[in-house]
Design brief:
Length: 164
Amino acid sequence: MAVARKRQDGTAAGPIVAGDNRSEFLKVTVKGGTVEMTVIAPVKIGDQRRLAGDAAVSKTGLAGRVLDSDGKPVEGARVHVYDHVQMSERPKFVSEKTGPDGRYQLALPVGGTYYLAARDKFGGPPKLGDLYGRYDQGTIEPSAVVVREGEVLREIDITVTKVW
């Protein structure tokens, strides 16, 4: 399977946002050689994965801060929301980047049980030097966050550290 993408801002990784081009999933089989293809990748209109601006409309979501190990705010991190504890696939939702105060707010289309991670890069597993952390309450496994329909959970803080 393959997907063709072209980001409006020229970055190599990150969530697809309004204005970016993205094709549907393509089934590709190549045997012994190369193939030249023309792929139609329409421009994305709207943005279902990053809903921070719609918090007042949905009334369901999460808010908090991304902090470093000293408790200081981390600017430029994103909170990734998963619906399974393994957090091994693409996140279901991704916040906007945190500002200088480390704060994030993320609207969710529905309530549910979610698992959260924060990081300063997007795409693939965290690499050496990246900032990464999961929401947990002092446990080895990530802690679940249960959000009820019409509820915004606040003060859901996530601590990130450098991956070594």
